[in-house]
Amino acid sequence: xxxxxxxxxxxxxxxxxxxxxxxxxxxxxxxxxxxxxxxxxxxxxxxxxxxxxxxxxxxxxxxxxxxxxxxxxxxxxxxxxxxxxxxxxxxxxxxxxxxxxxxxxxxxxxxxxxxxxxxxxxxxxxxxxxxxxxxxxxxxxxxxxxxxxxxxxxxxxxxxxxxxxxxxxxxxxxxxxxxxxxxxxxxxxxxxxxxxxxxxxxxxxxxxxxxxxxxxxxxxxxxxxxxxxxxxxxxxxxxxxxxxxxxxxxxxxxxxxxxxxxxxxxxxxxxxxxxxxxxxxxxxxxxxxxxxxxxxxxxxxxxxxxxxxxxxxxxxxxxxxxxxxxxxxxxxxxxxxxxxxxxxxxxxxxxxxxxxxxxxxxxxxxxxxxxxxxxxxxxxxxxxxxxxxxxxxxxxxxxxxxxxxxxxxxxxxxxxxxxxxxxxxxxxxxxxxxxxxxxxxxxxxxxxxxxxxxxxxxxxxxxxxxxxxxxxxxxxxxxxxxxxxxxxxxxxxxxxxxxxxxx
Amino acid sequence: xxxxxxxxxxxxxxxxxxxxxxxxxxxxxxxxxxxxxxxxxxxxxxxxxxxxxxxxxxxxxxxxxxxxxxxxxxxxxxxxxxxxxxxxxxxxxxxxxxxxxxxxxxxxxxxxxxxxxxxxxxxxxxxxxxxxxxxxxxxxxxxxxxxxxxxxxxxxxxxxxxxxxxxxxxxxxxxxxxxxxxxxxxxxxxxxxxxxxxxxxxxxxxxxxxxxxxxxxxxxxxxxxxxxxxxxxxxxxxxxxxxxxxxxxxxxxxxxxxxxxxxxxxxxxxxxxxxxxxxxxxxxxxxxxxxxxxxxxxxxxxxxxxxxxxxxxxxxxxxxxxxxxx
Amino acid sequence: xxxxxxxxxxxxxxxxxxxxxxxxxxxxxxxxxxxxxxxxxxxxxxxxxxxxxxxxxxxxxxxxxxxxxxxxxxxxxxxxxxxxxxxxxxxxxxxxxxxxxxxxxxxxxxxxxxxxxxxxxxxxxxxxxxxxxxxxxxxxxxxxxxxxxxxxxxxxxxxxxxxxx
Lengths: 503, 326, 165
Known about the structure:
The complex is a heterotrimer of chains A (503), B (326) and C (165).
Chain A: H1 2-14, H2 17-35, H3 41-48, H4 57-81, H5 91-102, H6 106-140, H7 144-156, H8 166-180, E1 183-185, E2 190-192, H9 207-226, H10 240-268, H11 275-289, H12 302-317, H13 319-325, H14 331-342, H15 351-354, H16 356-388, H17 392-408, H18 414-431, H19 438-460, H20 467-470, H21 472-502
Antiparallel strand pairs in A: 1-2
Chain B: H1 2-18, E1 36-40, H2 47-61, E2 69-73, H3 80-88, E3 95-99, H4 102-109, E4 121-129, E5 132-136, H5 144-154, E6 159-163, H6 168-179, E7 185-189, H7 192-200, E8 206-207, H8 211-219, E9 223-228, E10 254-260, H9 266-281, H10 283-291, H11 301-321
Parallel strand pairs in B: 1-2, 1-3, 6-7, 6-8
Antiparallel strand pairs in B: 3-10, 4-10, 5-8, 5-9
Helix pairs in contact in B: 4-11
Chain C: H1 2-23, E1 30-31, E2 35-36, H2 40-62, H3 66-69, H4 77-100, H5 102-117, H6 122-143, H7 158-164
Antiparallel strand pairs in C: 1-2
Helix pairs in contact in C: 1-2, 4-5, 5-6
């Protein structure tokens, strides 16, 4: 096995003392960057890129890989503890991670997330090692029609995520999709929905602006009100016994973790999809496969494990289109791609042939980083839990400040900070009236991909929808998606009929 | 008082990793007083972004500036956002921008922006990127003649993939449509890398990618260049003739130049000109240009302004041709 | 609660109409051989928002949703005061960033929040008001190289840049 020997070489390099130091440093730095709302792996990787000229290229890759993984773990921390997803990949983690933290199980949620991430990372590295070249062809076969059907599938797995109020859930989806259309219309090349001619709308509404607005500012306003300003953000205790208990309970979540890992990896290798749809779909599937789906969204550890396993697996998966096709699946891989150019490496099908040591060195270092991210993360859990015990009147203003600075960081535009503040206040007022917010956040993430790929497909097919059914991959996705959409409707009709016959 | 502890941890950490950036003396005269905002007119991961980050890396590596250059992507509205931003920063000595051809086309297509590019401070043209016509290597198409025959046979169903509407790729597509009396369908995608992949995956029939975008697939034997939109043949693709050789006098480049905010002080202008002249002369930049088949010498001052004026006039004609402007 | 539900639904209906009008700037119809126009996606989704708002109003009239049945006040006086203080302080902070910059706004916000709402000791408040901006500066500006807005206080930072960058 040629691949195994290469991978072993990669590991040997990654385990050199100097490189191990870089891993530990990178993971720690990444963990903190990722735990900040608004900052994610993309910031860490972008800032450290120029630094990589100071260390040899292998060291540089290892360092960047460590930051990447550290930040992925860190994203879960902010999702669970503050309820603010630091990156779109961590949105699904908030659904159950946040309720767990509020019930005083923050430590368990963090341990579950860390272990699930680790398993996800492990499975994806194994898959990458043995199936990279054939899977690269799958990625190549993927074009706009497949992309659109995948987006539809992602939406479909999320049916029933919102509240019980159907019109309000639909309203939330619609408003999220409308917001996602602000900015540039790619197909006609024209700016659209530029409200009041403000230049800040040209770059569209960034996902983080909405997410931090809703989950950061809106949530804290909610807590301030419901606690009358006094309560602690969440109770949490931590003893060694609880950690061990937490590790033991991973048995319960094992199935969801493995499912999430495979799903995340396969969605991750699809170009342009990246880790976000992967983690969302893993959550949806875990919920529908569960014996008691009604506990999801109320603090079910499976709802933390599945998306966390998926987003870590997907981040390894998304290396595949980046390396073989030169297509970055996420902003982070886009920057890594830029780094490869600086190091003089040409992404493309030949990379696996001409620069074997680079590819396997990267994979091995991702794996080593994964292991250390787990260890360092678990070591920091007591510190994070301790932060949660601070009086709320200290935590709240600090979280507000983090939100404002974090809302500014992605685009460096005050326009977005104002927008975030408005979203936060409106979201708070709407939440009080049972408008679910998660659908809007999902819609703003998936919306642009869905619209563009739909219109590209129709452009190719002269406006005919048959394009989604002529192509095998797209057709399969479409049929599953339609079935998933139809299911709840059929159930509803059945219930109504039963009602009538009984009544 | 326990809160302070975690804060100390943060600050200690920041100090550790700033240690790596400490730097020393530079050129005489005007110096930036604070970090320089390095606006990128395009999104993360695109050609302009990669180049800007390479420039930033070279500046840091050779310590060409006493203050760091901080890249900020402002891709909104095909660059409209960054143009307005620079316009608002009139007289600011700490804002510069990497531009591409949307520097000409966006103000022409969106006259409401009221942006006059001749007011921007010329710093330096770093390179001109080239374009070629590409098809998949599995097709029997070996020359532009074959290409024209194949497109005509397929009629309006021939798909040309490109980046953005009303931008470089569509201008070139339109040139081909007019020059050879074709009727190709233009489908816009986000980013040149994605366009290159659409061709390699046979979802598109042809593209007009930059060499850097297709190089990976070309080397793997997936795609084939038919002809170049350059005055001379490119060293990397010796077999591809130029359109000039084929009797169509058409040359088109993508400029990669650095501009400053309008009304920048003369001293600051001189400073940045010097920094980027050094970047241009650096071994890394020269190597990058050679590898990616980039053309064009370093151009600055009034010469750069004249170059912009000429290019702007050309683009006006081309945009009129495709009906984007009147 | 009942009144608030109706007011919100009506406000959102008007917002939907405004969005529909705004998206109609680009073609909203079906362009033959091409598919939907540039304004179609936002236009029809805004229409969806409008339909949902009307649906919500209908449910309000028929009293079929919990908020439309609830007789509890939307916000009692206490929570209204807390909400106004919280949102007002945030707005004032964001507004003041334009003038005195992040490093002026953060301490003022912290002092206000911790003293007025939290009733913490002056020692604690001062410590946090000093440490937070310092940590922010080192973490964002020096380590991550993200320049935060400084407003009028900009020149004060030149010596700091000289020292640390």
